[in-house]
C-alpha cells in the first residue's frame, strides 16, 4: 500500500480556501440581509413582520399571536414561537436577535457572550422616536426602502390640516383602570396632541404613566375621558373604578371612550390608527361645551 | 366602672368625637374645597367641581368608613363576649379574611357582575364559613391559645386561597389587587359601594340589638346563663349571623381592615366596667372613630399612590397588641 502523502495536501488546501471563501461570502451576505431573525419582544415582532421578507423571519415571541396585544397576530401564527428562553433561542440558530431595553439583561448578555448578534430597540414615546424605530429595524433587516415607505405613509396619515389654536382645542385625559393616567412622554400624550386634543395630564405636569387622584381629575375638568382596558373579559376593582358616578357626571353623562390597549404597548405605525380613533371622538364632541364652573 | 365617666357620658363623648372626625374627613383630600360653597353647589341642579368632590367622593368615603368601622368595632365586642375570649376579633378568628375570600370569588369570577347584591352576599357567606370553622376547630369556651391557633390556620388558608384565586382570575388587573384585599382600602369609593354595604350592616346591627343582657349573663358562665333563661344555641346562632352580615358586607367593599375589632373593645372595656352589654355601643362608635381617623391620616400622608388604610390600622394595632401581651404576660388573657 503506497500512498503519496504529498498528493492530497494541495486538494485539502484548496478545499479549505474555498470553504473559507464561501464562509466569508456567507458572513458578508448575512451582514447585509439577515436570514434567520428572531424577535423576543412584541415590539420587535411587530416591526419585523411588517418590514421583513417572510423568509428572513426565524421566530417571533409568544405575545405576537395575542390578538389583544398584537397587530400582526394572524401573520405571526405562521412562524415558530419563542418564549425568550436562552436554550430555545440558541436552538433557532439566529443571525440577528431583536430585543428591547425591557428584556432580561441576563438573557441578552448570555446570548452576546455566546456570539449571537443582539440588537436592542430603544423605547419611543413620540413620533420622531417611532420614525427612528422603524428606520432602525428596516436598516437591520436590509429593508430600508420598505421602512421609508412605511414612514411616508405614517406621516401622510398623521397630517393634520386643522389649524385650531392650542387654547381652543378640547381637553381630554386618559383614565386607566387603577386610576392611572398618561402624562408627558407617553404614546397616549403624543396621540392626543396629534389628534387635536389637549392632554390635561401633561399640562398639569404629570410625567409618564402615573396614578392620578380622582379629586385632581375632577378639578381639572377634562371634556372627554379615554380609557384603555387591557382585557375586558374579567371583573376587577381596578376596572370597577372606571364606573365611578363622579366620572360620568364630570363629562355630563358621556361615558369613558374606550381605546384598545394594544395601541400603547409598542411604538410603530399603529399610532396612525389610534390618532384616527381620537380624531373621530373629537368630531363627536358636542360643539362649544360650556365650562362647568 | 369608672366613676369619672358614666355610660351615657362615654357614648356622648364618643359620638361627639365621631361627628368631629366625620366633619374633618369631609374636609380632607388632595383638593382644598370650601365646604360652604361645596354644600351650596351640591344642592344646585348641575353641581360644580367642589360639589362633585364633596358629594360623590368624600361623602361616600366617610359614610363607608363610618359604617365599616362601626361594624368592625361592634363585631369585635360581640365575638369577644360571646366566645368569652378577648382575642376573638373579626381579624383573628377568620371572619375578615373569610369575607375577603367570599368577595374575591364573587367579584373576579363573574358572579358579582350578574347582580349587585351578590358581592356582599359572598362576603357574608365567606365570613360565616371561616368563623364557624374556627369555632368548630377551637371548641366552645376554648382557651386563648387554641382559639389563636385555629384562627391562624384558617387565616393562613383563606389568605392563600385569596392569593391563588387572584392569580388565576381572568382579569389582568386581579393580581395587583391582592394587597387591597389583605390590607383594605377606602380610596375612590362611590355611593354604589355605599348601597352595597348598607343593607347587610344594618341587618347585622339589628340582630345584635338588645343581646347585651344575654351576653352579660353568659359572662357569668354557661350554667348561670342557662339557669337564668338564656337560649344559648339561639344566641350563638344569632350573633354569628350578625357578625357575618356586618363584617361580610364591610369587607366585601373595603377589603380586610385589621385590628379595629381587636383594639377598640379592649381600649373601651375598662371604661365600661368590663360589662359586655355596656361595651357594644361604645365599641361601634369607637370603631367608626378609629377608622375615620386612620382614613384621614392616609390621605394626609405624602405618597404618590395612597397608602392602604389597613397599613395604618396595623401600624397602630400591632404595637397595641404587643403591649397587651406584655401587660398580660404571666396571667392568662
Describe this structure as you would to a colleague.
The complex is a heterodimer of chains A (293) and B (333). With 293 residues, chain A is an alpha/beta fold. In chain A, 43% of the residues lie in helices and 13% in strands. In chain A, helix 6 packs antiparallel against helix 7 (144-158), helix 7 (144-158) runs parallel beside helix 13 (271-283) and helix 8 (187-194) crosses helix 13 (271-283). The radius of gyration of chain A is 25 Å and the shape is elongated. By secondary structure, chain B is mainly α. Helix content of chain B is 73%, strand content 0%. In chain B, helix 3 packs antiparallel against helix 12. The A-B interface holds A 177-179, 210-211, 213-216, 218-219, 221, 230-231, 233-239, 241, 243-246, 249-250, 292-293 and B 29-31, 46-49, 52-53, 56-57, 107-110, 112-113, 169-174, 176-177, 180, 188, 190-192, 304-306.
**Strand order, largest beta sheet of chain A:** 3-2-1-4-5
How many helices of chain A? 13
| Element pattern of chain A in H and E | HEHEHEHEHEHHEEHEHEHEHHEH
Identify the overall geometry of chain B: globular
Structural class of chain A: alpha/beta
Average of pLDDT of chain B:
88
Topology, number of strands of chain B = 0
What portion of the residues of chain A fall into strands of 2 or more residues? 5-15%
Q: How many angstroms does the end-to-end distance of chain B come to?
A: 20 Å
Amino acid at each position: 500500500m503506497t500512498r503519496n502523502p504529498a498528493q492530497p495536501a494541495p486538494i485539502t488546501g484548496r478545499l479549505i480556501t474555498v470553504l473559507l471563501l464561501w464562509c466569508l461570502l456567507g458572513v458578508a451576505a448575512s451582514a447585509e440581509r439577515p436570514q434567520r431573525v428572531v424577535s423576543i419582544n412584541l415590539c420587535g415582532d411587530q416591526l419585523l413582520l411588517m418590514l421583513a421578507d417572510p423568509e428572513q423571519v426565524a421566530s417571533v415571541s409568544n405575545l405576537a399571536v395575542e390578538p389583544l396585544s398584537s397587530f400582526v397576530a394572524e401573520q405571526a401564527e405562521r412562524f415558530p414561537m419563542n418564549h425568550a428562553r436562552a436554550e430555545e433561542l440558541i436552538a433557532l440558530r439566529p443571525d440577528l436577535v431583536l430585543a428591547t431595553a425591557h428584556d432580561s439583561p441576563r438573557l441578552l448578555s448570555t446570548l452576546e457572550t455566546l456570539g449571537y448578534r443582539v440588537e436592542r430597540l430603544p423605547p419611543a414615546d413620540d413620533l420622531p422616536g417611532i420614525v427612528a424605530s422603524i428606520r432602525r429595524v428596516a436598516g437591520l433587516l436590509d429593508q430600508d426602502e420598505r421602512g421609508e415607505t412605511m414612514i411616508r405613509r405614517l406621516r401622510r396619515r398623521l397630517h393634520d390640516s386643522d389649524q385650531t389654536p392650542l387654547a381652543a382645542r378640547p381637553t381630554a385625559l386618559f383614565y386607566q383602570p387603577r386610576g392611572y393616567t398618561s402624562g408627558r412622554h407617553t404614546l397616549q400624550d403624543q396621540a392626543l396632541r396629534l389628534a387635536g386634543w389637549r392632554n390635561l395630564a401633561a399640562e398639569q405636569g404629570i410625567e409618564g404613566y402615573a396614578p392620578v387622584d380622582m379629586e385632581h381629575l375632577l378639578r381639572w375638568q377634562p371634556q372627554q375621558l379615554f380609557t384603555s382596558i387591557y382585557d375586558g373579559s374579567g371583573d376587577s376593582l381596578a376596572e370597577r373604578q372606571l364606573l365611578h358616578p363622579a366620572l360620568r357626571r364630570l363629562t355630563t353623562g358621556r361615558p369613558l371612550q374606550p381605546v384598545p390597549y394594544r395601541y400603547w404597548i409598542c411604538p410603530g405605525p399603529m399610532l396612525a390608527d389610534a390618532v384616527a380613533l381620537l380624531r373621530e371622538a373629537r368630531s363627536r364632541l358636542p360643539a362649544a361645551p360650556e365650562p362647568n364652573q | 366602672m369608672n366613676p369619672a365617666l358614666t355610660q351615657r357620658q362615654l357614648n356622648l363623648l364618643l359620638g361627639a368625637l365621631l361627628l368631629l372626625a366625620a366633619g374633618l374627613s369631609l374636609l380632607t383630600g388632595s383638593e382644598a374645597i370650601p365646604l360652604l360653597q361645596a354644600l351650596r353647589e351640591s344642592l344646585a341642579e348641575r353641581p360644580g367641581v367642589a360639589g362633585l368632590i364633596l358629594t360623590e367622593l368624600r361623602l361616600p368615603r366617610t359614610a363607608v368608613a363610618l359604617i365599616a368601622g362601626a361594624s368592625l368595632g361592634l363585631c369585635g365586642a360581640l365575638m369577644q363576649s360571646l366566645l368569652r375570649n378577648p382575642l376573638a376579633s373579626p381579624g383573628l378568628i377568620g371572619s375578615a379574611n373569610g369575607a375577603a375570600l367570599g368577595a374575591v370569588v364573587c367579584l373576579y369570577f363573574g358572579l358579582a357582575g350578574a347582580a349587585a347584591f351578590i358581592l356582599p352576599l359572598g362576603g357574608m357567606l365567606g365570613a360565616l364559613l371561616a368563623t364557624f370553622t374556627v369555632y368548630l376547630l377551637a371548641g366552645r369556651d376554648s382557651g386563648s391559645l387554641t382559639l389563636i391557633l385555629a384562627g391562624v390556620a384558617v387565616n393562613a388558608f383563606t389568605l392563600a386561597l385569596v392569593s391563588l384565586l387572584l392569580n388565576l382570575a381572568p382579569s389582568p388587573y386581579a393580581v395587583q389587587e391582592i394587597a387591597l384585599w389583605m390590607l383594605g382600602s377606602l380610596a375612590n369609593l362611590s355611593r354604589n359601594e355605599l348601597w352595597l354595604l348598607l343593607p347587610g350592616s344594618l341587618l347585622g346591627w339589628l340582630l345584635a340589638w338588645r343581646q347585651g343582657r344575654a351576653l352579660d349573663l353568659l359572662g357569668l358562665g354557661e350554667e348561670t346563663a342557662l339557669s337564668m333563661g338564656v337560649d344559648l344555641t339561639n344566641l350563638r346562632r344569632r350573633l354569628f349571623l350578625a357578625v357575618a352580615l356586618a363584617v361580610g358586607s364591610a369587607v366585601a367593599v373595603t377589603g380586610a381592615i385589621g385590628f379595629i375589632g381587636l383594639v377598640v373593645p379592649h381600649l373601651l372595656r375598662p371604661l365600661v366596667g368590663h360589662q359586655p352589654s355596656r361595651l357594644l355601643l361604645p365599641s361601634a362608635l369607637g370603631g367608626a372613630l378609629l377608622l375615620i381617623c386612620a382614613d384621614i391620616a392616609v390621605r394626609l400622608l405624602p405618597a404618590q399612590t395612597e397608602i392602604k388604610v389597613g397599613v395604618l390600622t396595623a401600624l397602630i394595632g400591632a404595637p397595641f397588641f404587643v403591649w397587651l401581651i406584655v401587660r398580660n404576660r404571666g396571667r392568662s388573657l
